[in-house]
Amino acid sequence: MNRVLAIAGVVIRELYRRKDFYVLFVLTALITLLLGAVNFFNDPKIVRYLKEVCLLLIWISAVVIAVTTTARQIPSEKENRTIFPLLAKPVTRWEVILGKFAGCWLAAGIALLVFYLFFAVISESRGGEGTPAPKAAAATQVAPGPQAHDDHAHEPGCCNHAPASPNPWLVYLQGAWLHWMMLAVVIAMVLFGSLIFAAPSSNATIMFIVIGGILLLGEHLNKVALRQTEPVQTILQILYFAIPHLEWFDLRDFIIYDHPPVAFGPCALATAYAAAYALLLLVAAWLVFRRKGLTT
Amino acid sequence: MKPVASPWAWLALLATAVFSIGCTLHPRTAAWRERAASGSILQVVLGEGRRLFANHFFVRADVYFHSGYYPSIFDQAQKPAPTAISGTHERSQDHAQEHERQMAFLGPPRDWIERFGRHFRVTEHTHLAHGEEREMMPWLRLSAELDPQRVETYTVAAYWLRTRLGKVAEARDFLREGLRNNPDSYEILFELGRLYFENDHDVVRARNLWELALRRWSEREGRKQPGEQDLFSLEQIAVRLARLEETEGNLARAIQLLELARRASPAPAALDAQIAELRAKLSETSTPR
Hints:
- The complex is a heterodimer.
- Chain A is an all-alpha fold.
- Chain A has helices spanning 2-17, 20-36, 48-71, 73-79, 83-87, 93-127, 168-196, 200-217, 221-226, 232-242, 252-256, 264-290, and one strand spanning 160-161.
- At the A-B interface, strand 1, helix 9, helix 11 and helix 12 of A face helix 5, helix 6, strand 1, helix 7 and helix 8 of B.
- Strand 1 of chain A pairs parallel with strand 1 of chain B.
């Protein structure tokens, strides 16, 4: 375990020596603060657009940091020939894989903590009181637009007002936690990819496409499959059940629209799901690494 | 390998190339400057593609109105997308049920992945209220910035600004901006008239604006085939103006306008009763005692 932590420590030190994180954080902060300075109809309380943009930048930055940091770990060890003294310590190949994973994951976690702290401070300082609790949830009048009749009222249950989040910090914490769990799967996937693909650049590019594809299309593959003919339908269905559903870990809508946090049970199950996929990919990486030559 | 020319020759060649490109681009940049002067930098940079983004941002405002509960493009492929903020529906009583039906896009989960995934997405149909409607405004402002010819953006934003957010001055400024960009829009004139009538209680201005809106409607929609005309707007303008004339005591004009509205209305029975009532009033006032 100490050897794994030692390898992880080196990876974390590498993150704060490199400029990737600082550049991405400064960019995120700069864009968010600039957007926060924009005046919309003299209303300083408008905050959700800012939350949305800031969270989007955090998601992009976190994935970029996780993928680029992980993709170069094993290839650079091989290229610099430091893999030989590392394995001669003696450190087993499984420990190398686990150490690299732990390092990248913890480094991504530290970065995520800074990002989410910045986000929480910005959103709470701007107008974090949340939505006030509805006085009458049912049969409240909602005028749909300028051309609609004024005496319009929705049916009871149609236009319940958004329930107020009891504690926004709890949703932020949950959002950050699930985001970190998602990064565990991403990092394990990239680590596995770094043993399959020849260069870190090709691995990173392919992983960006795969992650982006899963996040955007993953949950809709079953719907798309229904409209296809065989064998595309079966292939898409297999893909739908095989891929890690990273979109589950995206709680941005809950944070942006002040919804109450996800129940503990599903949150714990999602964590277990991420851990299982990460472990599966790490074992696959170890199996490949075990039989792989160490020369480039 | 010997160099083919001295560095000075290369420098001279590059300087000539730069000068030539500069001369070629100068007339084009003048055209860009003209375009930039007539519109925002976003319009210049994005060109016609800005209309797509404008539409996307308008939809974004609707997503905010529903607090994130909104169909994706894959859900929309099965059912058309609803728009609650724009109010394109005809009858308010039916709207609630129709809107609720449109928003029931999720349906029962198809498999365990979908069932479990619903814990992590917004599945409750709610609307913004209690001043939270302000959160839609940045997207509507941005949509208007990108496509100043999109009339709906101005009328929708102004509606929410003046009725829910109490920002009448901002709504007026935004509608005036819209009118500058769309001088022939009867929709903006109608909404501006409503603002003057309902918020400022300025009857004279409201009447002038609605009369102008009626004229603009005739100019624009009069040329169209009967089935393609925007009769809903005509009914709205005529009814509002008739109410105004009635309160001001111009009953003859009010009857005239209600008859116009009657021709545009899909359910003229209610208007018939009002016309009969006004006629009775008119005959009472005109009969010498």
